[in-house]
Amino acid sequence: MPAPVMPAYDRNNIFARILRGELPCRKVYEDDFALAFHDINPLAPVHVLAIPKGEYVSQADFCAAAPAELVVGFWRAVARIAHDLGLEQEGYRIVANHGPNGGQLVFHFHVHIFGGRQMSHRMGNMPRPSDRG
Ligand code: 5GP
Question: Is the pTM above the cut of 0.90?
Answer without folding.
Answer: yes
